[in-house]
Amino acid sequence: MSLFRFAQAKPFVTLGLVAAVWLVVPAVVKTFTRATFFELTAPVTVAASYARDLQEYWSLRLHSNRELIEAGRDLARLNASYEFSVQQNTEMQAEIARLEELLHIPAYPNYRLEHARVVRRDFSGWWQDIVIRKGKNFGLPVGAPVVFTGGVVGRVTEVHATTAVVELITSPGVRLAGSVEGDTRPFSYQGGENPTFGPPIGVVNYVPLDVAATVAAPKRLVTSGLGGVFPPGLTIGEITSVTLGSDGLSKNGLVKLDDRLGSLTEVTVLVPLAPE
């Protein structure tokens, strides 16, 4: 009977011994082991991403000519709209440069835009990460901001040979300085507790007392530029509610983030041209 009980408990004893040994292993060995495992599994992840792209390509080939013609017309309209937006953007950039030179205002740091494909998502209650299909081979640095059409995605936390890990702004480990659009007073933003299939949210602290926001009348939250990671003016989300903090000197609130953060397929990494 005792042998039977020992046989049942043997896997748990082995697991406990492995966990105990892992706890006493030096941090350098743990880091090396984790990086090595990531590099070994990266080709499989990247290959699966290319396979999905190929599958999508052949699925599009099955569409009828009529559907392709209609899609081409829609794309032509979008291209015309984007071309007009590019012209407006060029004019505004020239005006900004003229005013900066006239008023002796230093220009914002310049970035190189590196577009990357998302190959994997890793969401839990403690972290919110995505893996992108570019890394050291494209000169991505750790700490680089990542954006998309809806605003801030997150920041690069790990860079490997051909992949990189991006921590999303939904992650509780992300903190950055934000402000209400049109207001220069900064306050603290942090990722919230996001369930796997729930809407993405964040929290703000130390909000000025005169700031009010509701679901019906939200306030747009943007990056303040403090901290040197994210340039100012990028959209973070919308503040949907604020309540008086425990100290009575500021407010705390909830931030509704873009629903597309959990289903991104393409992102853009802002690589500083002159990193500090």
Short recap of the structure:
By secondary structure, the chain is an alpha+beta fold. It contains three helices and twelve strands. Among the domains are: 2-61, no CATH class; 175-263, Thrombin, subunit H (Beta Barrel), CATH 2.40.10.
Contiguous uncertain segments of 5+ residues: none
Q: In CATH terms, what is the architecture of the domain at 175-263? A: Beta Barrel
How many strand segments? 12
Number of helices: 3
Helix content: 25-40%
- Give the CATH level 1 class of the domain at 175-263: Mainly Beta
Strand content: 25-35%
> Quick check: average pLDDT?
82
Radius of gyration: 24 Å
Largest sheet: 6 strands, antiparallel, barrel
Shape annotation: globular
Cα separation of the termini: 67 Å
Class computed from helices, strands and strand pairing: alpha+beta
Strand order of the largest sheet: 1-2-5-4-3-12
